[in-house]
Amino acid sequence: HYTLKQLDPAITALKASLSAAPQGPHADAARLVLAEAQRDAGQKQAALTTLASLCKTGSPSPLAAQAHFLRGQPKMAAGDAAGASTDFAEVCKQWPDSQLVPRALLALGWAQLRKDDPQAAEATMGRLIEQYGDDPLAQQAFYGRASARQQAGKFTAALDDLKAVLKAKPNGPQPSAALHGRALCSDGRHGES
Questions:
Q1: What residues contact residue 121 under an 8 Å CB cut-off, 6+ apart?
Q2: How large a percentage of the chain has pLDDT more than 90?
Q3: DSSP secondary structure string, the chain?
Q4: pLDDT tens, 6-52?
Q5: What digits encode the pLDDT tens for the residues 82-112?
Q6: Which one of 55, 73, 101, 172 is least enclosed by Cβ atoms within 10 Å?
């Protein structure tokens, strides 16, 4: 990471470059770098504005996909699950071949859960598992889909996903969360119709 002293001149130079050639051949890259510098300098609203300008260009550039993804992250952190969902879904829709799609699907699924839409979250996590099963994010999607299914009252299906999480022996907090979820689903399953 750079210091604020180093970021200020970079931000100024990038803004000048964009003012001089707003549609130049490297304008999208400059906008993306500018947004990241603004974010690192603590200028969160300026970074979001810059990302929004890159998203508005209608550029088919993969950098625009990255801008949508980066714009969705702070929205999600701020509790704007609907806004985040829009950006993550846009990545999947407009750039289906992007390497960001698995990450966008996972983030979209969690945003849908936060919007209290477990059916959409279950479908999104399922898409990640089916289309990107070899991606390490697929294991996280099993846990996300289990959460969606649990929220929807589908306890038996949620248990199956939690078993897949535990079978994969993941690192981090997932094993204990999966064990906890498995206990909750086991209790809930008795009332499942």
A1: 109, 110, 112, 113, 144, 145, 147, 148, 151
A2: 55
A3: ---HHHHHHHHHHHHHHHHH-TTSTTHHHHHHHHHHHHHHTT-HHHHHHHHHHHHHTT--SHHHHHHHHHHHHHHHHTT-HHHHHHHHHHHHHH-TTSTTHHHHHHHHHHHHHHTT-HHHHHHHHHHHHHHSTTSTHHHHHHHHHHHHHHHTT-HHHHHHHHHHHHHT---TTHHHHHHHHHHHHHHHHTT--
A4: 888 899 999 999 999 988 888 889 999 999 999 888 898 999 999 98
A5: 999 999 999 999 999 999 999 999 999 999 9
A6: 172
Q: What percent of the chain has pLDDT over 70?
A: 84
Separation CA 111–CA 84 (nearest Å): 7
Q: With the C-alpha atoms ordered 96, 101, 107, 109, is the resulting torsion angle positive or negative?
A: positive
Indicate the pTM of the whole model: 0.80
Please enumerate, as own/partner, the contacts of 104-107 that have beta carbons within 8 Å and a separation of 24 or more.
104/68, 104/69, 104/72, 105/132, 105/137, 105/141, 106/137, 106/140, 106/141, 106/144, 107/69, 107/72, 107/73, 107/76
Tokens describing residue 77: 């952190």
